[in-house]
Amino acid sequence: MDSVPLLIAMATLPLEDGSLWYETHGDGQPLVFIHGGWMNGQAWEPQVERFADEYQVITLDVRGHGKTGATEPNQYSIELFTDDLEALLSRLEVDNPILCGLSLGSMVAQEYMNRHPDHAAGAVLGGAVRSMPPMDLPAGMKPFMSPLPALTTTLSMTRPETIFRSLLVSIQATTGEQWLSVDPAVRSSALDAVGEISRREFRKVFGALYRYEPADLSHVETPTLVIHGEQEAPLVKQQGRQLVSEVAEGERLELSNSGHLVNQDRPDAFNTATAAFLDPAAQ
User: Fold this and answer.
1) What parts of the chain have a pLDDT lower than 50?
2) If you write DSSP's letter for every residue of 198-244 in order, what string do you get?
3) What is the pTM of this model?
4) Where's the AB hydrolase-1 domain (predicted)?
5) pLDDT at residue 226, rounded to an integer
6) What CATH code is carried by the domain that includes residue 188?
């Protein structure tokens, strides 16, 4: 029997101040993938290949990233990224989506669940982080400790990729681990994606990550799976455990031999865990 060709659509969603690039693959229950900071929808390629035969897989490039590129606002926020996600789901007439977010994308998924506590059919959060930095700070102190002024100065003299490399060195010195990825090819691809981001957009995305204040998710009824790599930063793992304890139905899984980009370091294991979570009867 001949295989059925995979339906792939590439399009843009007009916004008031730009346009959002997205792709849809296959047909079925909507499964929406939201990438991490300074990456793009191509980071989900192993998951698109695995799930597009069973689901309507939707990937997007968040503002400032990939083919969406720069948009007009001087300041980004996780809330704005979530507004865009809501607009895209409305455009595609998607009800009860399954959300799969990595890092920044996990924040967008959490904000969506906060707004719609029983709307999403499920959520898989890879490299899940609730705030940046991943620690509790005294109330009202975060704006006064902001690294954004120093970042602006540094960006005037060097490229985003160089700054990102410095961040990796700092995290590795703190954790003693290859935090971003244990796979040199995955790490190289991620750095290439960062290199495509302009200085202005890099700062805007960094600001969105830093300023985000996570909501209490105890009202969220969406079944949620948090997946961390073994070499994830300890404070991020701690936030993942907190997230799982808050939602009504939460599970947490840690995959060995993997870092923050757990879906690319261990794609088969990530896909297997996701499939079992979404449809345990099929396993």
Assistant:
1) 1-5, 283
2) -HHHHHHHHHHHHH--PPP-TT--S-EEEEEETTS-HHHHHHHHHHH
3) 0.94
4) 31-271
5) 98
6) 3.40.50.1820
